[in-house]
Every structure is written in structure tokens, then in C-alpha cells.
Design goal:
Helix 4 links the parallel strand 4 and strand 5. This protein has two domains: about 130 residues, Response regulator (Rossmann fold, 3-Layer(aba) Sandwich), CATH 3.40.50; about 60 residues, Arc Repressor Mutant, subunit A (Orthogonal Bundle), CATH 1.10.10. It is an alpha/beta fold. Helix content is about 50%, strand content about 15%. A five-stranded parallel sheet has the order 2-1-3-4-5, sandwiched between helices. The relative contact order is 0.10. It is elongated and about 60 Å long.
């Protein structure tokens, strides 16, 4: 017989009280897991990361105060962080790709059976990444998947060296609308500025 492994310490961030209680029950009777804390939004989850030591965090994508994207951005690049699984019912097919780009270790849909979440946690705790196959393949073949036609236009204009003002004039939209679209574009690509966005764009073109 192998050595009994210690339980996987987990913290959950889930806004829905009913689902919270269901998850607490799911892990309560399972010796493979130790539920360290349950929070109901991203801000409290980040507080838990500061205060507690745990292996895996299970976070929603759409949460009050700070959403899943914000949590991943806040923890990105930091050392000794828990591995994060995005657990969401969001119908947006681009969420797994965005989560992976921002450094999540796994993705699990709430539409899956609870056993799928259990399997995902175990795999992630063992150092693997778990994402739907279709999103992983689209990430590899086209990093710009999921952009709207307008965002693609703006990205091409950025790569052409246009200023925000020039883009507004060329596309006949307001400067504020350009800034709004650029913020969404940067979020989707997981970049922080136009230079990084252009690098992403050029890399994407090379890989086609």
C-alpha cells in the first residue's frame, strides 16, 4: 500500500449561497480534501490568500466586488500562490481561454457533474493543467480567438502605429469608445498596454 497522502487544502470563492452549501457538503465527507475557508467574492478570496496557506483555490468568474479575471490578475506572477481553478456557469465560450491566459491552472463548468470538479482539483493539485480541449487548441492555433470584429480592427490599427485619436477618426467613433474597446481588448489578451498587445498580434500572425 502507498503512503497516505495529506488532504488537499482548498478555499472556495462562490457568490451563490446555495451552491456554497452544496460544495461544503461535497467536500465535508471526503478525506481527500480539507476545506479551509469559503468566501463569497474575489476581494475576500484575496484576503484568504494573504492569511491562509492552501493548495487549490476554486473561484467563480462572475463575482461581486472583484471577479475571477481580477483575482487572476492580482495573483499573476506571484510566488508560492495556490493553484487556481475557475468554476463557472458562464455561457461565454471564451472564458476558459481567458482564464488560461491569465494563469489559471484549470477550468470546470458548473454544468458538469460534481465528480468533474473533484477530478479537476486532484489533477491541478498534482501539477497538471485542466482545460476543455477545444479551448486549448484554439489558444494554440489562434491567440486572437474571441475578439470582436471591432477589437480586431483596433488591434490591427495599434499594430499600424495609430494613436487613439487617429483610430477614433478612422473608425468614426468617439475617443472614449476607442478607450473602452482597448480596455476590453487588453483584458481578453491578458496584456497591460499597447506595446504588449501589438507583440501579441504579431506573434499571432507569425503562428498562422
Amino acid at each position: 500500500m502507498g503512503v497516505q497522502q495529506r488532504p488537499i487544502d482548498i478555499v472556495i470563492a462562490e457568490k451563490n449561497p446555495l451552491l456554497q452549501s452544496s460544495l461544503v457538503k461535497l467536500f465535508a465527507g471526503d478525506e481527500r480534501f480539507c476545506l479551509v475557508a469559503v468566501t463569497d467574492d474575489g476581494e475576500r478570496f484575496l484576503e484568504a490568500v494573504e492569511r491562509l496557506a492552501f493548495d487549490v483555490g476554486i473561484i467563480g468568474w462572475e463575482m461581486p466586488y472583484l471577479d475571477g479575471r481580477g483575482v487572476l490578475q492580482a495573483l499573476r506572477g506571484k510566488t508560492d500562490m495556490p493553484r487556481l481553478i475557475v468554476y463557472t456557469g458562464s455561457p461565454n465560450p471564451d472564458v476558459p481561454r481567458q482564464a488560461m491566459t491569465l494563469g489559471a491552472a484549470g477550468f470546470c463548468s458548473k454544468r458538469e457533474a460534481p465528480e468533474q470538479l473533484i477530478d479537476t482539483i486532484q489533477a491541478v493539485a498534482a501539477g497538471r493543467m485542466v482545460f476543455p480541449f477545444i479551448d486549448v487548441s484554439s489558444l494554440a492555433s489562434d491567440p486572437l480567438a474571441g475578439l470582436t470584429p471591432r477589437e480586431r480592427e483596433l488591434l490591427a490599427a495599434l499594430a499600424g502605429g495609430l494613436t487613439n485619436q487617429q483610430m477614433a477618426g478612422q473608425l468614426d467613433i468617439s475617443l472614449n469608445t476607442v478607450k473602452f474597446h482597448l480596455k476590453n481588448l487588453y483584458d481578453k489578451l491578458g496584456v497591460g498596454n499597447r506595446a504588449q498587445a501589438v507583440a501579441f498580434y504579431l506573434k499571432g500572425r507569425e503562428s498562422r
